Amino acid sequence: MLPMRCKKTFDARTLSHQALEQLRQSAVQRVEAGESPEFVGAGLGLNRRTIYRWLAAYHTGGVDALKAKPIPGAPTKLTTAQMARLARIVRTKTPQQLKFEYALWTLAIIREVIRRTFGVRLSEVSVGRLMGRLGFTPQRPLYRAWQQDPILVERWRTEAYPAIAAKAKREGAAIFFADESGVRSDAHAGTTWGVKGTTPVVKTTGARFGFNMISAVNANGQCRFMIIERRVTAVVFCEFLRRLLQGITRKIVLIVDGHPTHKAKRVQRFVAAQAGRLAGVVRAAALFTRPEPRRVGLGACEGETGPRRSPDEDRVESPCPWHPAQPATAAAASAQFLSRTLVRLCGRMRLY
């Protein structure tokens, strides 16, 4: 006995909701215009009973009865209030504030937060769909120092720096921004494209090494840098200043952050000796007002209260003539302003 086959030449269930809605309205309009339901159904490849059912719905509820109805699906396990609270938690807190070891939000951590907070168990796939519904996407975060005060950052950017720039313009000096950075061979950064489902492998040496770099850039895209294999001290920074002055005929105003090396007496003496060429080393406004956490480690066990400093790194409290008066409560310098400036200038950088 042969199996029965469907006699329909067209299955409307394969259409989208919008296309099916347009098909219903078009079929009803043709019948209302005078065509027979049988002729319309044959032309569309539909059973005549389907056409009569659409006509009955139209005569009962009008055009709205022919519109596609949303498919609700399974009800959500979290209420609207709970989803709003979850979104607020992810937006305003970090996992470490909730006593997790990892600092970034993952589906597994969010799943655990849902279980702890609301007593609801969800799979990671469901959590991923929920986060998309709440407007969250996986992104690579930007790192900012937690001690930073955004109000002081904005004040320095809009008030202090324009004053420095105006004075440099009057004296014909060039403004450079300098910063130190460390580079390691085992640092993993950046992304790459690969076949879906296959993680790309980058082969590197197993030997680990690192070095430090001091660089300075200006608004014209000029870049000077020096690479060293030892730590940055006042002696090293003075050597960088000496190299920076080579080949530049204008005066230089160098803006740096609050690194202890920049405040060393040796650096201050070197800058004073270069009064005709180095107009000044300006530390960015003190924008970090929150206290540093107490360091606990081997040094503390041995009775030390902080990291050791060489005599060349003694701080000086003499005010810089290029720096306007700042609040007495500020404690360090702006790293954010320098980093943003470096990123903007690197696009048109020329190496020397």
Strand content: 5-15%
Helix content: 25-40%
Radius of gyration: 34 Å
Measured distance between first and last alpha carbons? 87 Å
Low-confidence stretches: 291-320, 323-337, 345-352
Strand order of the largest sheet: 5-4-1-2-3-6
Shape: elongated
- The CATH topology of the largest domain turns out to be Nucleotidyltransferase, domain 5
In this structure, how is the largest beta sheet organized?
A: 6 strands, mixed
Structural class: alpha/beta
> What is the β-strand count?
6
If helices are DSSP runs of H or I spanning 4 or more residues, what is the number of helices? 11
| Total domain units | 3
Protein described:
This protein has 11 helices and 6 strands. Mean pLDDT is 76; it is low at 291-320, 323-337 and 345-352. 38% of the residues lie in helices and 12% in strands. It is elongated, with a radius of gyration of 34 Å. The chain has a 6-stranded mixed beta sheet with strand order 5-4-1-2-3-6. The protein has 352 residues and is α/β, with parallel strands linked by helices. The protein has 3 domains: 12-66; 80-133; 150-184 and 210-291 and 307-351, 2-Layer Sandwich (Nucleotidyltransferase, domain 5).
Q: Topology, pairings included?
A:
Blueprint: H1 17-32, H2 37-44, H3 48-61, H4 80-92, H5 107-118, H6 124-133, H7 150-171, E1 173-184, E2 210-218, E3 222-228, H8 234-245, E4 251-256, H9 265-273, E5 278-283, H10 298-301, H11 335-346, E6 350-351
